Amino acid sequence: MNSWVTLYKCLWGISIALIIVVMISFIIPKYRKLTDYQQKRYALQQENREKETLIRELRHKQELILSDPEFIKKTARDIGMVEPDRIIFKITNSTLRSPGNPGITNRGHTP
Question: Residue 96 falls within a domain, yes or no?
Fold first, then answer.
């Protein structure tokens, strides 16, 4: 009879261990999924903060465009536009060459 009690206790111990293993096997994937969702949430919150900053900057520029004519002129100049009555001078760093001899530079001296 004593062996039956021992066997009974062992079976209960094995049953409880199996139940714990099964419960853990269900919990671990859920925990991993939770941490993945938390990481995605953090990344999306960061992206939202960046977009909110961009929106604030764009609203500020919109206010300047609607209220400040000098800002409009400066922005137009920055993208290469000029007023209709202005003349553009472009200066380059190229060396002047003599038409007869391309190897001699013309610096105002006559040979």
Answer: no
